[in-house]
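pinging the channel bc i need a second pair of eyes. not urgent but kinda urgent?? the chain im working w is below, pasted from the shared doc
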Amino acid sequence: MEEKLDLVLQKLDSMERDMSFMKQEMGSMKQEMNSMEQRLSSRMDAMEERLTRVQVTLENETNQKIDVIGEGHDFLIKHLGEALQMEKKNERMELEILNLKMEVRNMGYDIRDLKRKLALV
C-alpha cells in the first residue's frame, strides 16, 4: 500500500513540476503578447498620425491647387471664346480687304480701258 502511495506522490510531484513549467511558459507567452500589443499600438499611432498629415496636405495644398487650376481653366475658356470671335472678325476683314482689292484692280482695268477708248476718239 505504501508503494502505491509513493507512486501517487511521485505522479503528483511530476504533475506539479509540469504545471509549474506550464505556468512559466504561459507567463513568458503573456509577456511576448504584451510586447507585441505595444508594438502594434505604436505602429497604429504612427499610421494614424501619417494619415492625418496626408489628409491635412490634401485639404490645405492639393484642394487649393485644384481650385487654382479650375479658375485658370475657366479663364482660358472665357478668353478662348473671345479670341475665337476676334479670329472670325479678322477673317471677315481679310476677305473684305481681298474683295476691295479685286474691285480696285477691276476699276483700274476699267479706267485703263476707258483711257484707251478716249485716246482713240
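so The longest helix spans residues 2-120. and The chain has one helix and no strands. — does that match what u expected or am i reading it wrong
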